[in-house]
């Protein structure tokens, strides 16, 4: 089982110490109801070799390498274990000559978001819905003091821990398998990211309030989500599925999203990027057995989803508490 005690020790003397009032009990309960494959995934982490990278680059990529390259056989053994943790959705990772070519080129999104952020140097950061943690490592590469990701999906936790092991067991980033609705309002984070989460929430205003409750006064929210064209009253509520996803509830226009943020008390709200998701950014690879974006779009008109809705377009909004 994954041991969270080192994390507890790390935060015991920090601004996060009050989290220890609830978190250990929550994770103890979580461990009693994990996915049926969880124990197998944890064993895969144990099977990975203990490598000590001579060079780690988290500034320009998520990359580890040695002066003496691994043999082909050593690489193949690592690839075999990592492929037992498929599908790999957010990446890419470059580890000892192994390229984990994930479904999403998450570096594209990071390059769009990064120029608009307040400097992350020495910041305490929360990444909500962090997936396997690709963006967390890039935040560490920008000098963050500590990055905590939350995501309840056990596979993502195991992917994160596998990558951490291959990054010299770096303890500047941690993934906690909870949803934000289970977090007590800590009010201490300098920056809170919520990227690709809002449209999965049945109550988007509650989600925005939960994000606000984790920020310190003056802290920065980085919100990335699906949007549609329209005015402040335009919100798409898909009847059944959107791009084959059944858990998409509300897709607002940028103006409607700004209005929502104002309603829950955010200030200095600005949209810094709007981008249609391209087939280069989200696509099927050998690290993903499932369908990907090309399968979610109308084959005769890529401006529409297969259900006839506008194709995925994403906006980045930055605001302050």
TrEMBL record:
Carboxy-S-adenosyl-L-methionine binds at residues 90, 104, 109, 129, 151-153, 180-181, 195, 199, 314. Catalyzes carboxymethyl transfer from carboxy-S-adenosyl-L-methionine (Cx-SAM) to 5-hydroxyuridine (ho5U) to form 5-carboxymethoxyuridine (cmo5U) at position 34 in tRNAs. This is tRNA U34 carboxymethyltransferase. Homotetramer. It holds the Pfam family Methyltransf_9. The keyword Thylakoid does not apply. One of its GO terms (biological process) is methylation. Keywords: Methyltransferase, Transferase, tRNA processing. HAMAP family: tRNA_carboxymethyltr_CmoB (MF_01590). Its EC number is 2.5.1.-. Belongs to the class I-like SAM-binding methyltransferase superfamily. CmoB family. It comes from Pasteurella bettyae CCUG 2042. One of its GO terms (molecular function) is methyltransferase activity. It is an enzyme of class 2 (transferase). It catalyses: carboxy-S-adenosyl-L-methionine + 5-hydroxyuridine(34) in tRNA = 5-carboxymethoxyuridine(34) in tRNA + S-adenosyl-L-homocysteine + H(+).
